[in-house]
Amino acid sequence: MATLPGQLSPTPRLLLGPGPSDAHPRVLSVMSTPLLGHLDPQFLEIMTETQTMLREVFRTKNQLTFPVSATGMAGMETCLVNLIEPGDPVTVCCIGYFGTRMIDVAGRTGCNLTVKHKPWGDVFTLDELRDILKETRPKVLALVHAETSTGALQDISEVGKLCHEYDALLVTDCVTSLGCTPVELDAWEVDAAFSCSQKGLSCPPGMSPISFSPRAVDKLKSRKTKVQSWYLDLTSIQSYWGGDRAYHHTAPITMIYALREGLRLVLEEGLEARWARHVRNHKALKAGLEALGLEYIAAEAHRLPQLNAVKIPAGIDDVAGRKKLLTEFGIEIGGGLGDFKGKAWRIGIMGYNSRPICVLSVLAAMEHVLR
Ligand code: PLP
Which atom of ligand 1 is nearest to the CA of 198? Predict the structure, then answer.
């Protein structure tokens, strides 16, 4: 190499897209502390603390609760490949782009897959889900709780109970909900849930917290076939994150420091206070966006406070608008995915970034861009 690249010095940005959001300064600070070995007694204690806090944040007593060493998609894959065997009837209820990811992941397991769609921006009602369960009789029903592509919140509070009436397990994607809006795994009878580190938990991307209910663990134990993924096979990872702490893979030490601090921040603030903060800042952002003439994609009755997906007004260029926000104001927002490519902007005010200064900054910059 003729000349070495210079020392890394990224331009500061305000990350107000669908994720990653900015990591909390306290999280960044613990990430520069010395490494421990992944079997060091001190690190094993850190793992236990992280799991204990994760259970509180997921509102569960599920023993099998830990962060998968990879991003949210690995959490999705872990939940689906561990609970599905070839030939199993499985139903995915899709309300947007991340629902299509579930279809793809579940489809690769060789299951007998049924897919039900709602128009993007919409959600399923409990009656619709009951009819789907009656008709398809799945062993697993999968849906996204907070659909990041549309800003819609799928109410799952009664869905777990309903699934159990039909002998199905409920798998839910909580990637954009955990740490921002209520997630109550035990009260809602969710069997398997996964999330991420880079949104409501104010950490960098790289960890995917998951949790399996005792029902889901029973299904895992009664499998007749091997889990199709070696890395994500919970029957073996369990011994590392379970009692034995037996080597499975080298844990990403620094990311677990980060997650531990992110979870401490959530619990210090209190879940209810945190959810209320997200609603408060959403209301301020919504007032401003509507004053700028922007229209939300999801109806108010099922709208996410932390992920604001709005239609791009006629005459405004998607890419040029976002480029201006980034280069002139240092603010990142997200474009549309799938059906909404070129048609939507997605503004995330999640975790550490759910603050009035973030709301005011993005509104001021957007006013300039839309002028
Ligand atoms: N599910 C949802 C709802 C998401 O928003 C995302 C990412 O934003 C994912 C899954 C995938 O997570 P990751 O990009 O961390 O792998």
Answer: 15
User: Which uninterrupted H or E stretch holds 331?
Assistant: strand 331-332
Closest atom of ligand 1 to 145 CA is 3
pTM score = 0.98
ipTM associated with this complex: 0.99
Name 365's Cβ contacts closer than 8 Å, sequence gap at least 6: 325, 328, 329, 331
The answer to whether residues 83 and 168 touch, using CB atoms and an 8 Å cutoff, is: no
What average pLDDT score do residues 75-86 get?
98
Give kind and range of the element (H or E) at residue 44: helix 41-58
Following CA atoms 355, 31, 146, 129 in sequence, which dihedral angle do they give, to the nearest 10 degrees?
-150
> Which residues does residue 66 pair with via DSSP β-bridges, in sequence order?
210
Q: Which two tokens stand for residue 100?
A: 């299509």
Could you tell me the two tokens for 3? 């000349």
Check pocket membership of 50 for ligand 1, CB cut-off 6 A: no
Query: How many angstroms separate the CA atoms of 150 and 337, rounded?
Result: 9
With beta carbons less than 8 A apart as the criterion, state whether 183 and 229 touch. Answer: no
